[in-house]
Amino acid sequence: MAKHKGRAWHSRLLAAALGVTALAAATSVWTAQADTTARPPQGRVSAPDAQDRPVVKVKADIAHASDRGDRGVNITIDDGPDPVWTPQVLRLLKDQGVKATFCMVGTQARAYPDLVKAVVADGHRLCNHTVSHDTTMDTKSEAYQRQQILDAERMIIKASGGVRSQYYRAPGGAFTPYSRKLAASHGMRPLGWNVDTKDFEHPGAATMVATVKREIANGPTVLFHDAGGERSETVAALREVLPWLKEQGYAFGFPVR
């Protein structure tokens, strides 16, 4: 998500995460030493591409490329899941035969575990988007960054039934060398974007589609949102832009790891 987004969504998420942050502050030693590679619980949802395999360290540089090569496109969906908009996005992606990467906020994943499982069941990939979507976390302590990333990952794993995130996207692009290395050491490739539709500014579906058409040559990873506000424009833009990308000969893939 672009860093210039309004503060209202961030404030609501910080409030929702207050209990988690307080707990982390009181138990910082536990947080620092927690074993995030514990065996997932029985009865978990199995990901089609084995997202729930044991952690393997990945590169710490920020990924932008697609695993489908030069004509690949990565659709990424941030800030959810949301009970109104995520189901609509999932239906649209299924109708178009497109797989996407969902960058989930920890408190949202905890609140809507059935939607997290639905994302996994449809063959999409998970991305850790921190506990509370703090776009200033690059100015905070390493202990705070660790809490935001690792607590969110525990929430996502629990909500998904044992499936791990394959990527880490810092809110507003607020990466630090420490957060990138921490995420990579837990199997989450830092994930950037090339095309920002700015759907959080509600520019209109036509403007968002025009942005994708104009900027897709800059790189394959496209940023949309399924939470943080009213997202009917996002759904409408996806409905138009996905067929257009197919017509242009693009193949939908996932970010490289």
Could you characterize what this model shows?
- With 257 residues, the chain is of the alpha/beta class.
- 42% of the residues lie in helices and 11% in strands.
- It has helices at 7-16, 18-26, 28-33, 85-96, 106-111, 113-121, 142-160, 177-185, 205-215, 232-247, and strands at residues 72-78, 101-104, 125-128, 167-168, 189-190, 195-196, 221-225, 251-252.
- Strands 1, 2, 3, 4, 5, 6, 7 and 8 form an 8-stranded parallel sheet that branches.
- Strand 6 (195-196), helix 9 (205-215) and strand 7 (221-225) form a beta-alpha-beta unit.
- Helix 2 (18-26) crosses helix 7 (142-160) and helix 6 crosses helix 7.
- The radius of gyration is 17 Å and the shape is globular.
- Residues 18-50 have low confidence and may be disordered.
Q: Name the helicity range.
A: 40-55%
Q: In percent terms, what proportion of residues is strand?
A: 5-15%
The span between the termini is 20 Å
From the spread of the alpha carbons, the general shape counts as globular
The value of Rg in angstroms is: 17 Å
The structure class reads: alpha/beta
Low-confidence parts lasting 5 or more residues at pLDDT below 50? Answer: 18-50
* H/E element sequence: HHHEHEHHEHEHEEHEHE
Query: Strand count, sense and closure of the main sheet?
Result: 8 strands, parallel
* Number of helical segments with 4 or more residues: 10
Number of strands: 8
Q: Quick check: average pLDDT?
A: 86
